[in-house]
Amino acid sequence: MIYEWAVIGAGPAGIAAVGKLLDQGISSAEILWIDLAFKVGDFGARWANVPSNTKVDLFNRFLQTVKSFEYLSAEKNFPLYHAEKNKTCYLSLMVEPLQWVTNKLKEKVQTIEDQAETLTLNNRSWRIQLKKSECRAKNVILATGADPKNLAISTVPIIPLQDAMDAGRIKQHIQNSETIAVFGSSHSAILALRNLVENGAKRILNFYRSPLLYAIYLEDAILFDDTGLKGPTAEWAHDFIDGKLPASLERIYSTEENVEHYLPQCDKVVYAIGFERRQLPVVEGVGHLNYIEECGIIAPGLFGFGIAYPEAKENFIGRKEYRVGLWKFMDYLQRVLPIWLKYPA
Ligand SMILES: Cc1cc2nc3c(=O)[nH]c(=O)nc-3n(C[C@H](O)[C@H](O)[C@H](O)COP(=O)(O)OP(=O)(O)OC[C@H]3O[C@@H](n4cnc5c(N)ncnc54)[C@H](O)[C@@H]3O)c2cc1C
Description:
The protein has helices at residues 12-23, 41-45, 56-64, 79-82, 92-108, 161-164, 187-198, 231-240, 256-262, 326-341; strands at residues 2-8, 31-35, 51-55, 88-90, 110-113, 116-122, 125-130, 134-142, 146-148, 179-183, 203-208, 216-217, 222-223, 249-253, 268-271, 275-277, 282-283, 297-299, 302-304, 311-314, 320-323.
């Protein structure tokens, strides 16, 4: 059988894609959904204990805007229901509703729990080679997520970013007399710095490249909505990075000379310098999987979506930003799905 659509990945982006295809009237028998675990992706596995930079209201909009999610019929009394709409929250609050929606969608579409390894276009459909089997689809959405980037510049042991951003898990990495390096100055870096400071790390060196950037709330828009610091993370940065630097924290401009001088003094390092898309599945004949950043097209019938293939959009002062976040994924999908539906293999 050749499916009309295959969605690879069941993180928030894959969930949105399957839901929107159903809403668009694609028959559930024509949709194949592939993931290794169907446990809300990295959002569920790695980032649940991270404070969001999104307000609760936008999470609710994500859940309510797709009819096939049937979210309003959920009988469960999720804590997200009771969270203040205009406040940020821990991402964990969103994991449970997303798992509920995943289970609901799994009852509707065809699913395979496996890893997609290779995609090959032939006879106007995509052959998807999985670890344990293979299948075909006319259209494929890659919603396969991204891993934190590392710099291969030293042998200093790395603290995984998901541990550095988790106020509970960071403790196991902090030993009395150690010096810990943190590369970066965006949302993730600030969260890591805060966790290290508040959990008593003795000496922290923050390698940064640019001044902190804060979201600016105007009457009808947010400037630097995608790149600026927001919520409690912005408040902490104002008070302790641009304000009174904690005694344990040193900021170091990240030149080659400075890194060469200071990094060998460190016992551990956290890289909070962005994300890179996962390498699987390999798409034969499409090199590095470049995509059109304004609409997600990789090749005929092959589309990239989610944190691995974020929309690039100019903000209202003409600066290009990559849009990552659940509501941004949904808003983008609403605009690009009509294009994707007209561009099969
Ligand atoms: C620190 C941090 C804070 C964030 N804060 C917010 C926030 O406040 N608000 C917000 O809206 N967003 C936030 N995000 C952004 C975003 O929502 C998450 O990164 C989200 O997890 C991205 O969703 P995704 O579906 O693109 O990828 P993922 O969640 O990574 O899901 C990808 C899925 O694809 C599967 N997969 C990968 N490769 C294969 C393969 N070859 N075969 C089969 N399956 C495969 C994986 O197993 C996984 O299940 C944050 C992100 C980070 C990192």
